[in-house]
Design a protein that fits this description.
By secondary structure, the protein is of the alpha+beta class. Helices cover 36% and strands 23% of the residues. The strands form 4 sheets. Strands 3, 6, 7, 8, 9, 10, 11, 12 and 13 form a 9-stranded antiparallel β-sheet that branches. A 9-stranded antiparallel β-sheet has the order 14-15-16-22-21-20-19-18-17, with helices on both faces. A two-stranded antiparallel ribbon has the order 1-2. The longest helix has 46 residues. It is globular and about 90 Å long. The N and C termini lie far apart (76 Å).
Length: 715
């Protein structure tokens, strides 16, 4: 290892001499002019006369700017381009050629100097590390007797681990001291700590990130409202919430008892108050309690799960059907030992049911991550809205989160607890039973979504193409690009279908429950959306058919022409199919509509269908053929324009007694139909009443066709 360090040192010294030569050359090459030799004519030429000195031609600022801009696009212009550029700038093609040669040489020299600087920095780092290792080996001690050890008595890896262990001891002692200063409790040094888990919180890193998923609106709250006086309270609240979550996740009766349907557990509030008298205070008047617990084994290792939960962008993307907006307001601790153990951050989020009839739930909370024994991790959320005395929240989270236990072969067992208090008086009557059962926002929905998305990620990471995926998908890169495009389509649909605080829905005249609600948004400077005015329309209604039958009917391409007005009765053919898990309903498909209408002939539709015990989705969007060919070749799908439409299918109530199929449901379905249509390609145009009437008729006609097709199949 030391020889390798000396070799790198030698390489870095050699680069210094090269730097001097490059700098000397660059003084000439970086000039913005062109040298031109003036040759004398035949009669005037004197054989004894020395050639005239080169005349230096300096380019104007305008010429330099034009050539700089052209260089950024075409660093190697051909003869035609040089002639055209020279004509435009009143320069000879040879002058243009020399300028571009000099510019390329200059850029190369700058790049080499940058690389040399990086090598020198790495060299200094290796030199310091080399000295540290030598000092450590010279002061090595014998692990048996504690006396001085000769080189060779202790392995290099063992000594390295001892050095890291000492550094970690110092770090934990430092963090304990900082936490004691904020919390106001005496904390023992590391050497005196018992086997009880410690709550090490690094408060040295504090910054306002303002990092938002899904847009800000009124969701982002200034962290200045939480003063330095509040932070010790936040820390104590997080530590207590972690202890409560672990007990809630592991306890049995009498805290949790079996529900009447035999498939869920019920929290006994009297026992909860007896076991956890402090918490975030008594339940406010007018609020209802929703508490649920669910466990599952998912195909993802525990480290990746923790990283997803602690990264606001990954978390909100993973649970895009539940989380519409999320932001990290302040990071109080980044964790220790290079992972999220002890990480603490203040966050805000908005949770939804995919329907404009159910108000979203907005909350500001602190998220705390802790590693426990036996490779078990815990991530807990608890509301901190009560720190604002002038705010009366409609929703707050008591300690909620999950325990993640490592299993072999990259699997993890997840136990999820959701415990909230909410004012739900604004929920529409047809969704009341679903929301009150804790199925709409409860642990079962979080775990079901997590399990389904873990299977989808496993499909994305697979490098092979299964026999069922043979078709227009010819490479693993094309498969991944198509799945990435479908993921963006689903996120766009879910972000625009709920009753978010950032949405202004206008209700059109209807019969009551199935009123059509519309919303307009301007699309500008978004490469993933067509520019112009986008009209969103949505309606939710009840169907006396089990959710699985509705889902199977809507995702089947053979029955699509029964309800899809845009297909104009044409046959729909599946050109590609990517399975996203064990359930055949979880898939991404590429469909071709063979319509008699020439304007719709050969239209392609990207569709993703997904289902779990708490809900199902069928989301689709028309796509351009050329853009889709680029995606299937492994190209970047971020610039493919999409306007997704689709369906969200939820059970109207919890499942029946034990013995029924929990994936089917015994009651009816709550179906939300949502369209997004570009009504004008000019973002500044005004929306006409005719466009609204057209979209209203389109969605109502689609709803009637769906009712006819599904009820006919259900009977």
């Amino acid at each position: 290892m030391f020889d390798a360090h000396h070799h790198l040192l030698g390489m870095a010294h050699k680069t210094v001499e090269n730097d001097l030569d490059i700098i000397r050359d660059d003084e000439y090459e970086s000039k913005s002019g062109t040298d031109i030799m003036e040759a004398p004519s035949g009669d005037d030429q004197d054989p004894n006369q020395r050639p005239k000195k080169k005349r230096y031609h300096r380019h104007t600022q305008h010429q330099i700017q034009e050539m700089e801009a052209f260089f950024n696009e075409f660093p190697h212009p051909d003869d035609k381009q040089r002639k055209e550029l020279g004509r435009r700038l009143s320069l000879e093609p040879l002058q243009v050629k020399f300028w571009f040669q000099n510019k390329r040489t200059q850029m190369k020299a700058q790049h080499e100097r940058s690389e040399n600087s990086q090598l020198r920095a790495e060299n200094e780092k290796l030199r310091a590390e080399n000295i540290r290792y030598k000092d450590a080996l010279s002061n090595a001690t014998c692990p048996n007797c504690g006396g001085p050890a000769a080189i060779g008595e202790m392995s290099f890896d063992e000594q390295h681990l001892r050095i890291d262990n000492a550094q970690l001891r110092e770090e934990i002692d430092r963090i304990s001291g900082i936490a004691a200063k904020f919390v106001g409790k005496s904390m023992l040094p590391y050497s005196q700590i018992s086997t009880r888990p410690t709550h090490s919180l690094d408060l040295g890193v504090s910054s306002f990130t303002g990092e938002i998923h899904g847009g800000s609106g009124d969701l982002l709250r200034s962290i200045s409202q939480y003063s330095e006086v509040d932070k010790p309270v936040i820390i104590e609240l997080a530590v207590a919430a972690m202890e409560e979550l672990i007990r809630m996740a592991q306890a049995g009766e009498p805290l949790w008892v079996q529900g009447s349907n035999g498939l869920s557990e019920v929290l006994i509030e009297e026992e909860y108050i007896r076991n956890f008298p402090r918490g975030i205070g008594p339940k406010p008047i007018g609020m209802k309690t929703e508490a649920s617990r669910e466990s599952a084994v998912v195909i993802m290792n525990h480290i990746n799960l923790v990283e997803i939960l602690m990264d606001v962008n990954q978390w909100s993307s993973m649970f895009s059907t539940i989380v519409t907006k999320a932001a990290t307001l302040e990071v109080l601790s980044t964790g220790v030992a290079g992972n999220y153990n002890g990480a603490l951050q203040v966050m805000t989020a908005e949770f939804q049911v995919p329907s404009p009839l159910v108000p979203t739930r907005q909350n500001c909370f602190v998220r705390y991550c802790k590693k426990h024994v036996d490779e078990t991790w815990a991530v807990v959320d608890v509301s901190i809205d009560n720190l604002r005395s002038n705010t009366i929240p409609k929703y707050r989270r008591r300690p909620s989160g999950c325990l993640i236990h490592e299993l072999p072969n990259g699997y993890s067992k997840v136990t999820w607890v959701e415990h909230v208090e909410v004012d739900d008086k604004d929920v529409h009557s047809i969704y009341k039973l679903l929301v009150n059962s804790s199925l709409a926002f409860g642990a079962k929905r979080w775990v079901g979504t997590l399990d389904r998305l873990c299977e989808r990620l496993a499909s994305v990471m697979a490098n092979n193409i299964s026999p069922g995926e043979i078709g227009v998908i010819s490479s693993p890169e094309g498969k991944k690009s198509m799945l990435k495009l479908a993921e963006r389509m689903v996120m766009s649909f879910c972000n625009g279908v709920g009753a978010s605080i950032g949405h202004t829905w206008t209700t059109l005249s209807g019969s009551g429950d199935d009123d059509v609600r519309v919303m307009t948004r301007k699309s500008m400077d978004d490469p993933g959306r067509p520019p112009g005015i986008v009209l969103s329309a949505a309606t939710s209604f009840w169907l006396p058919v089990p959710p699985k039958k509705v889902f199977d009917s809507l995702r089947d391409e053979n029955s699509r022409n029964q309800w899809d007005i845009l297909s104009n009765g044409g046959l729909v053919q599946e050109m590609a199919h990517i399975a996203n898990g064990h359930d055949p309903g979880n898939a991404v498909s590429l469909l071709r509509v063979n319509s008699a209408n020439s304007s719709q002939s050969n239209m392609l539709i990207l569709q993703e269908s997904c289902t779990d015990p708490t809900g199902s989705y069928v989301i689709y969007a028309p796509v351009d053929i050329d853009a889709m060919n680029m995606v299937l070749s492994g190209g970047d799908p971020d610039y493919v324009t999409l306007l997704p439409s689709g369906f969200a299918i939820l059970p109207d109530r919890p499942n029946g007694p034990a013995g029924g199929n929990p994936d089917v449901g015994s009651g009816g379905s709550l179906l939300t139909v949502a369209f997004q249509i570009l009504v004008d390609s000019v973002p500044t145009a005004k929306l006409s009443l005719g466009s609204i009437a057209t979209v209203n008729n389109l969605i109502k006609c689609t709803v009637e066709r769906i009712k006819g097709a599904v009820l006919c199949d259900g009977s």
